[in-house]
Design brief:
Layout (H helix, E strand, L loop, with lengths): L1 E4 L2 H7 L5 E3 L7 H11 L19 E5 L2 E2 L11 H4 L5 E5 L5
Parallel strand pairs: 1-5
Antiparallel strand pairs: 1-2, 3-4, 3-5
Length: 98
């Protein structure tokens, strides 16, 4: 069981409170997590990654086990603590401005 924490605006869109728990096919990768998330919550399609390219949107970041994984390959295995559900996979809306 994978644990995912969404930013507040995406929790509102998906109509969930707190963490989302879901089964993800192995190997557990960013792509696998996002595919499972979008399959369960179709309203999130296009909000985290681009519809056409499937690349992470510029103002979205991914964190796991205290590390920024935003620029890691989407098919690289996530840390074991994420795959086992001990740590959550965090999707964060980046803040910009001055």
């Amino acid at each position: 069981m994978i644990r995912v924490i969404l930013p507040p605006h995406l929790r509102t869109l998906a109509r969930v409170d707190g963490e989302v728990e879901m089964d993800v096919q192995t190997p557990v990768t960013q792509r696998a997590v996002l595919d499972a998330l979008e399959a369960r919550f179709p309203m999130l399609r296009g909000t985290i990654r681009d519809h056409m390219t499937q690349l992470r949107r510029p103002m979205v970041r991914f964190f796991a086990c205290g590390e920024d994984l935003s620029h890691e390959p989407v098919d690289a295995p996530l840390p074991e603590a994420i795959a086992k559900g001990a740590e959550p996979f965090l999707i964060i809306g980046a803040i910009a401005g001055g």
